[in-house]
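User: I'm putting together a small comparison set for a docking exercise, and I want a reference complex before I start. The sequence is below, and the ligand is flavin-adenine dinucleotide. Could you produce the 3D structure with the ligand included, as structure tokens?
Assistant: Of course. I'll restate your input first, then give the structure tokens for the complex.
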Amino acid sequence: MIGPNGDFRSKVASQVRSKPRQARFRGPITRRDFVNGVAAGAGAALTAGPVSALGQAASRAPLLAPGADWYGYGGVGPYRHSHGNTPEVVESAHRILDGQVPLDPDQLESVEETDLAIVGGGMAGLGVALEFSLRRRDGQSCVLLDNHPMIGGEAKENEFLVNGERLIAPQGANGFFVPEAPRDLSEARGDPYYYAELGIPREFTFAAWPQDRKPLRFCRDNYGYLVAGLQQHASVAHFFDGGGGGAGSWAVDMFRNQLADTPLAESSRRNLLAWFESGAARHFDSPEQARRLLDTMSYEEFLRNELKLGDAGARYADLFLASACGLGSDCVSAYAAYQMPMPGLFGPMPAGMRRVSFPGGNSGFVRYFLKRLIPDSIQGGASFEDIITRPVNTAALDRPGRPIRMRTSSTAVHVSHDGAPGQAGSVSVIYQRNGRYHAIRAKAVVMATGSWINPYIVRDLPPAYREACASFLHAPFLVANVALTNWRFLYRLGITAAIWDRQEDGFGFTCNIRSPMHVGDYRPPLDPDKPAVLSFYTPYHSPGLDPKAQVTLGRAELLARSYPEYESRIYRQMMRLFGAAGFDPAVDVAGLVLNRWGHAYSVPYPGFYGGANGTAPRDTLRNNYGRIAFAHSELDGNQHYGPAADEGRRAYRQLADAL
Ligand SMILES: Cc1cc2nc3c(=O)[nH]c(=O)nc-3n(C[C@H](O)[C@H](O)[C@H](O)COP(=O)(O)OP(=O)(O)OC[C@H]3O[C@@H](n4cnc5c(N)ncnc54)[C@H](O)[C@@H]3O)c2cc1C
């Protein structure tokens, strides 16, 4: 709680730093009026109250204040101060969860009015903003708040400069299948809609692998090498540690070679191959039929009980499932596995499906949204090259008088109707920026944020919504990007992607270098003697433990370690894997960026989609109450850019009449 401040009390309205616009749907308001209105709407529960009761139940990591050595190196360029959750975001989240939020008029620095407020600047929040831009009436305005220094949520990028080479890598969301062009844009939704609406190209150039080098295959994103049906496009090897300090052994392209080079027992081999090659062992007439049958069991149960397979396949499946959903096959609904798609539920990939990744992963989509919504927020023109490779102009995001303003490093701490939700004419949002509190009064608000935090912010949230929020399970994730001066050690091994059995004191499970997309003058090399980024996509799953325990332990591990601890763990793991092939961190590593995501994924557990009877908690959250609606990729279960933005589009439409 910020203590009483005498100076504040004596300030007059003219000293308010960002002056309120002339109100269009009410008279001008003072800070005290504002707080009185909020109090009327939120009842007595203004600070702690029911919120902190919920707080007791929250599964939280013990760390409250990240130390000075927590965040670490951030690379170069505008994203260097916004890689993963910042220490400020972690601290403010914990303050919100603890109910330490003031509601004192004298602590409000400014009061502003707008038509629509959006909380959250990830793909869902941007989806709201895009729909607003397409449908708004003259004079309508919108303010988007995000708590990170850069817009994009989990779709951001890291940038490195290594020996004169500019290298861009994803911080999180990284790949997609190029969608078909829709026949009728007005009917389109999901990936095809945004792709067409934003005018994103469908043809790309990738770095060519020199003919005079030994043949190697490269994934174009950071997932494909884990997926049956895509793995063959990468030179991927599995490292069997063996434990006991021995040398360990590599099995390159192990499924292609029928697991012949692996030290696995015969029964494990049979089981693993049977799983990998199981194709579409079950057929469904419709996704609805699949959902009703599959959403009653975990993928592991499906493999064990329906396909009569042992655990080897389930454990291998964990690598991809936990990377894409946060936890492994013991916790993830078989219906989510069907959507992924995973062996046993899906045959060969349809011909012509192309999976690619922009230089910064899905940050490319964020850039397209920004360019559309605030054209000068990305320097240069509207070409693919300019949008993808030119710096984000953060100064342009929040210009007075613009219909859409985006405010970064702004954490919403309190949202409530100004009166009873069914009758109130507005919603109040209090947010914190640079240690100061500001307020917005909007005709409607979209919470494009996760259920793990929403009940602590939205103070008049009805019990049914609180219950629905509590049903979500959020898993942490770490993307560690290691900028290399060269990757000769991988070349010597004949691989571009690695998978390993993690030992007790080890780090991660998988890593790879992508075949980089070339965009205009951005032409990173693909040469083992030259720089590249090695990306470790690292989930925190502990198969067999209670799912809540898994995410709580995982978050503790993600957040509690300092940057230097991670650094030494990662280099130790790399020495274990690649030391014999000549890896030397002192020579080969140019920089390491950690992107920590405390609540990266909403885990689609069995029943998430409604199980056999078809209704699910997310259905509750897809209904607005009063002038507040919810939009986040978590509601879809399959966290993906198109469905995320669709949730935003849906939320906007629910509120459009209130604007
Ligand atoms: C490691 C990883 C890999 C992924 N890979 C892919 C992929 O390959 N392809 C794909 O399509 N998707 C991928 N995803 C999924 C990705 O999360 C979604 O596609 C999408 O980007 C999520 O958007 P969102 O808006 O729902 O959520 P988020 O990205 O979480 O955005 C929500 C924003 O709201 C902010 N916020 C929260 N609380 C507040 C507050 N109180 N005040 C202000 N702001 C707040 C958050 O900090 C965040 O910036 C991946 C995700 C992760 C974590």
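Residues 119-125, 145-148, 153-155, 172-176, 362, 411-412, 448-449, 453, 457, 477, 479, 597, 600-601, 632-633, 639-641, 644 surround flavin-adenine dinucleotide (CB under 6 Å). The first helix runs from residue 6 to 9.
User: Thanks, that's exactly what I needed.
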